[in-house]
Amino acid sequence: MMKVDYIIVGQGLCGTLLSRKLVQAGKSVFVIDNRNPTAAGRVAGGIINPVTGKRLVQTWLIDTLLPFAQNEYATIGQELQTSLMQECSILDFHPTMETRTTFNEKATADGQYLSVSDKEEQWQAYFRFNYGIGSINDCLLVDLRKLIKSWGQYLTANNNLTNEHFSLSDCTVTNEAVVWNNITADKILFCDGANAATNPYFELLPWSKDKGEALIVAIPDLPRNNIYKQNISIVPWKDDLFWVGASHDWKYTTTDPTSEFRNRIEQQLDFWLKLPYTIVEHITALRPANFDRKPFIGFHPIHQSVGIFNGMGGKGCSLAPYFARQFSENLVNGKPLMPDVDIKRYSKILSR
Ligand SMILES: Cc1cc2nc3c(=O)[nH]c(=O)nc-3n(C[C@H](O)[C@H](O)[C@H](O)COP(=O)(O)OP(=O)(O)OC[C@H]3O[C@@H](n4cnc5c(N)ncnc54)[C@H](O)[C@@H]3O)c2cc1C
Predict the structure, then answer these.
(1) pLDDT by residue (tens digit) across 99-132?
(2) Same domain membership, residue 196 and residue 62
(3) Are 29 and 198 in contact (CB under 8 A)?
């Protein structure tokens, strides 16, 4: 029987960052991941955008989350001897005069992340647009697939990862210990992404799973140092390809890729992009989103050896690094979690 401090279920974005923090703190982990190709972390664009929505409001805690994430991805990249992050701007091609006016007013009032692009002419060769371009600055593009793969290789080399499906029926959970196959641990931490919405321990949390689709597209002549946005985003992706997306669908009837999405994106690209392009793949996943748009972190109120690190929705790249450190410090030193993210706020619901 192998004994570890923590069994971690899921090595997507959350399982990667949390297991790394715990290993750094001197704790032993055993990670179980079924390498689901349609898990959010393998489908995501990897963008950290400090402003959100039509009104271009700064996202929650961004002044704290962004520098922390930037430092963390750079450090992990150094440790794993690879590059995991690109600093870039989002070129926001205004679709209407109204959106241009809103952007310019915001940029004048609060220029921290927004500026008006002075290079509009340069982009006329690549895109059709009539209402100018705004620049959203200080964005990051995280290579999630490489991060998950590289950290997975590190765990495998240390015999701390198995690539198989975890089922609760193979697990014995008491408040003192957790036993799975030949592994025994003090605690089990679920980092199982959108699957947590059907996990018996946590299915009562207010999940609001959000289906996202994206196309992987070859656009050989498009420069790769920016993200381009006009309702949809064109984002540099692996192997000289671009990721184009994404949809948000909370009322999906299928988790498969849909022809409606593909047709809509093709129409948008035909209208917007002046360059030739070829679609090479159509991908889709469920975002582990929830109604209060804040992470779910902490321990089950009754089953005290069962924890969760989840609920990152569509913003895992910025939220997960900061809160992985916070959860790790909570686990190792008992430092309190921020009440906004602590699942104690759902104790009543989870105790039913
Ligand atoms: C289309 C799309 C676009 C997105 N774009 C962005 C973006 O630009 N920026 C951003 O910040 N976020 C984005 N996201 C959201 C981001 O992907 C998530 O916030 C993040 O991946 C959540 O991390 P997670 O670890 O909770 O889940 P995941 O990354 O999905 O990881 C869950 C892991 O658990 C494993 N697993 C689940 N159940 C089991 C089981 N029973 N046994 C074994 N293993 C299991 C899965 O294989 C997977 O590896 C996007 C998501 C989608 C779908």
Answers:
(1) 999 999 999 987 789 999 878 889 999 999 999 9
(2) no
(3) no
